[in-house]
Structures are given as C-alpha cells and as structure tokens.
Design a protein that fits this description.
Elements (H helix, E strand, L loop, with lengths): L12 E5 L3 H14 L4 E5 L2 H10 L5 E5 L9 H9 L5 E5 L4 H9 L4 E4 L4 H12 L19 H9 L4 H11 L4 H8 L3 H15 L4 H9 L20
Parallel strand pairs: 1-2, 1-3, 3-4, 4-5
C-alpha cells in the first residue's frame, strides 16, 4: 500500500477538451484506469479551453477534439500549438481518415486518437506520447509526408494570432458581421476592425472573403454520429 508503480506515474495532469459530455466521461474513465493518480481538467469549447490551459500551464497532455465550438477544423490545434509550444496536444476525433491523422501531425499534434479506440489502446497511446513519442493508430505511417501547402501556411499564420484575434477569426468564419462580433466580444467596432486588419496581414489577404476562404482550408468534414467506446470492467 502506498507504493506507486512506475507504470502509473504520480500526478499526471490532463486536459480533456470535447463538447460531448458523454465522450469526456468515457475518456475520463479510460485515463483514470491508466493513470489512477491523474488530475483531469475539462473544457467544452475554445473559450473555456483557453482559460483552462492558461490556468494549467503545467499540464502534461491536452486531448483535443477536432470539432470544438469556437474553432474551425485544425484552426484550434494550430492556435494552441503556436500559443503553447511546450504543451503536448493529442488530437481526438471520430474522423479516422489517414489523411486527417497525418494533417494533425503536420500541424503540431503529438498523436491522433480515434474516438472508437478501446481503453487498452487509449492507455498505450497515452503512455507513448507522454514518453515523447508520436502515436498514430496501427497501419497509419508515422512518417506522414510533410508537404507544404496553402493550408499549412494558413495554419502557421493562425499559430501567431492573439487570443482576441483568434476569436475574431472564428466568428468571421461563422459569417458574423463586425457589429455582431463587437457585441459578442463586448468591444467597439473600431477594435474589431483593428483585429481584422491584423488578421488580414497575418493571413496575407485583403478582404473578408479571402480570409474566410483561407480559414476554410483548415476545415475538417464532420464525422458521423459518435458512439463512445464500451466501458471496461474495473480491475479486480
């Protein structure tokens, strides 16, 4: 009693970012089985996630859903890896296309965990990425071709945005007007215009339409309806 096994590191801190409470619960259970002494924080959208990461900069691993409210596809990943380069981010998604997994690695993720993965696979994946490795499901090459593309250039630009500029970019992608963005952020329209000017410069565009098209290059096709992994019996 009281002796900790090397296979169960003490005090690992995880952030689980997903807008589905059911999946957060399933993932929390899997993490708890693999790391009994883990500390878990949760976020349900990009705004709460930014607050959570800022308050937990000693986090060991962030598990990030690709379809978080307040982000467009890979924009959330690109932003977080740019703002917090020391924070390992593992993408979690029901979209299990190999090209999506490879893009996640290209944009800075340390791994890609399918939502269909059973508890034992989740445990193995977490141990691998916490050991500093990149983890992808069996059969997906870890040596994904790193091809420079327009989308990667946009991801690099998104990584340099401030939190306020990122919020403006996300609402711009949702089709909100300056007046609506100002209302949502509780700022003046002049402030929104200043953020847009900076955003256009970083994206290398000259108009709202061009900015939206650039941001859309990071979008990911929504997966089908999610079914959580089966619950695993507690160890005897």
């Amino acid at each position: 009693m009281g002796i900790q096994s090397d296979s169960h590191p003490v005090g690992r801190k995880f952030i689980v970012a997903d807008d589905h409470p059911l999946f957060r619960s399933a993932l929390r259970q899997s993490i708890g089985q693999a790391f009994p002494d883990a500390v878990l924080e949760e976020a349900h959208d990009m705004e709460s996630l930014q607050e959570c990461v800022a308050a937990n900069e000693d986090c060991d691993l962030l598990l990030l859903d690709l379809h978080m409210p307040g982000a467009h596809g890979f924009s959330g990943l690109a932003f977080l890896t740019g703002q917090y380069p020391q924070l390992p981010v593992m993408v979690v998604s029901a979209n299990e296309k190999p090209e999506i997994m490879c893009r996640a690695i290209d944009y800075g993720a340390c791994g890609f965990l399918p939502k269909s993965a059973p508890a034992e696979t989740i445990a193995a994946a977490l141990h691998r990425v916490l050991a500093g490795e990149i983890w992808l499901p069996e059969g997906v090459s870890a040596a994904c071709a790193q091809q420079e593309s327009a989308a990667e250039a946009v991801a690099d630009a998104v990584a340099t945005l401030t939190p306020q500029q990122f919020r403006v970019a996300s609402m711009l992608g949702e089709g909100l007007l300056n007046k609506q963005i100002a209302y949502e952020m509780d700022v003046t329209e002049a402030t929104v215009k200043a953020h847009l000017t900076a955003l256009f410069r970083k994206l290398g565009v000259n108009s709202r339409t061009q900015a939206v098209l650039a941001l859309n290059s990071l979008d990911v096709e929504p997966p089908g309806q999610f079914s959580p992994p089966p619950r695993q019996p507690a160890p005897a």
